[in-house]
What we know:
Layout (H helix, E strand, L loop, with lengths): L4 E8 L2 E10 L4 H13 L5 E4 L3 E4 L1 H14 L5
Parallel strand pairs: 2-3, 2-4
Antiparallel strand pairs: 1-2
Amino acid sequence: MGAIMEIITRKEKNTVVISVKGRMDAVSSPEFEKGLEELMAEGEKIFIIDLCELDYISSAGLRSILATAKKLKPKEG
Length: 77
């Protein structure tokens, strides 16, 4: 069975809210990280990541979140 993950992004004032549903693992986490990198390239730097509907997260998923946080730090994100 393949990894199933849904990402819903919405903007609230100067913050991007990213809701992640399903599974975030080694297969799906690159999609998550790429999406955030694209938003950062557009100038976004404040994110809220909503994991309320996340069923499973692997160490690869956690690494994606931490790698994004590290990239945001110099941008004061």
